[in-house]
Amino acid sequence: MSHSRDPYDRSHEPQADDVYGQEPWMLDPYADPYTGQTAQTPPEGYTPEQLYAQEPYVPGPETGQMLAQTGYPPPYEGDYRTGEFQPAYEPEFEAWPTADEMRAGEPELEQESEPDRGKGGRMAAAAAAAAAARPRLRRVRRQRGRRLDNTVLVALGLVGAMAVALLLNRPHQWEQPKLAADSSAPTAATVVCPGKPKSGADQVAVTNAADGSGKVTLSGPGAGNGAETTVGSGKVTSASVKPGSVVVKAGKEVAPGLVAGRSTTKPLAATGCIPPQAEAWFPGVGAGATHNSILELTNPNSGAATVDISLYDEKGVVAVPEELRGVAIPGNTTRTFDLLHVIPRKGELSLKTTVVRGQAGAMVRDRAIALESQKATEDYFPGQSAPAETNLLVGYPNSSASRTLTVTNPGDAQVSAELRLLTPKNVLTPEGAPEIRVPPNGQTQVDLTKLLGKDSASDAYGVEIVATGPVATAMRSVDGGDVAITTATETISEPTAAVVPAGAGVGKKRVVISGPVAKTGASGTVKVIPMNAKGKALKAKSVKVGPGLGAEVEVPAEAALIQLVPEGVSINAAVVMSGDGDAVVPFRPLRTEVRTAGVAPGLPLPLEP
Questions:
Q1: CATH fold of 186-386, please?
Q2: 20 to 30 Å CA-CA from 415: which of 41, 325, 564, 580?
Q3: What is the pLDDT of residues 282-338, one digit of tens each?
């Protein structure tokens, strides 16, 4: 029989329900494993110091639930919905209160009677004091690694901000080292000559406008199995080729200053051979019965190339036929597209070529066809490398039955353009100049036949187009069935040269030079040096040009090479030839050096104050 003060006496207390499937004595430190009964009153005779000295009860793993005094948190403290997990497992546990803490929370008890004391009153008071002190248990976190405190992070941020402020307040103390760009002569050069028109005596001429001499190779459909020829400085070498396109390649001896051209006589047609271009614009091509154009895409390398073609008209972008989408060009081949057969239509188009893989040279042969006789004449249509807000169309035949200006807008907004005339003394806006408005992703054509007639602009030698956005421009002149194309020229500030046809069928030649357009541009002189095919210099002449000031210089008919040497001025120039027809050949910058940017690793270096 159990005593009334026996701490294991549970006979007077009802049996508790099963908790978590375990026996009550597994969860209660006072439970009697033998009787399974719970006493109504805790045992008497234990002081707070004795309670504190007892070891905390830790149930075994069979309980399935860990109590607070074990020191371990629940097995999962993250939110499975948000995925916020604790970065590291750091167990927490509650420390037992000290004896002083237990006494501090112990309420004052009145003197109990002996019967109450016999029921364990003092022990009940101690348990109540312990329960009252439980919310104030100290939490202890076990440190498994050192972490940065928020105060440390704030201090580091302040130090960084102060360093940046010092740099900004004293910018003169730091300067990025400047390295000059390196320049060297090119070790190789490649230019592409378009195919021959249907009629006329044909030739490909090659020379070196610098001091180089050596051998060049000719390849492509027009060169058959390939050929090799020797060129010298200032000497023009003509090569016999077939009607197809020709690729001219030079080594390091001839690459600096390589110049080549292709021309026909009776009727007259001429152009300069151009290097491969990433992009080319051809405003005003035709795909009709009286005006037709032929596009040539030449791959000068052994690897494959791919070219995208875009078309525009007055209404906007034109749907490109499947044949012109992603044109693949095998190595060392030329693909030719007759627009009359590919996309037949009335009216003119603007054509753009974009090389998306490899290298390719793009050139157009423009054709005028007489309906009565079906006689066709062709001339070369060199492309514009990129649209610009200011375009100079320098040089055109003196007399033509019709002149049509085409302005192409590649942007997404409408563009307005102003037309001005270039004269030897100034740049002026003529009376009756048309208002040019170009729709987005479209083109506009303007008839300039009357405006550029002898009565109204007898001394004008070019047209300037100033637009509110980048545009591409070209003017097509037709006289007696012969066609001549004037495109926007490139600005030149270094010596350059152009190969032109000479001999029977070629009459007058004149060099048209335009000074800088900007009013703040510098004035200078340009030396014009014509040379015959043997390299002998003919009568040279120097002219002065400047902002709004241009010049025209006639050269002898036997001139096969024309050199321009600008001194202290930037120019735009072209050669206009007449004879059995008309032709315009623009001057392009020579590739005489290769420049590489200077690059230096590391941080800016401090300078002395």
A1: Hypothetical Protein Tm1070; Chain: A (2.60.290)
A2: 325
A3: 999 999 999 999 999 999 999 999 999 999 999 999 999 999 999 999 999 999 999
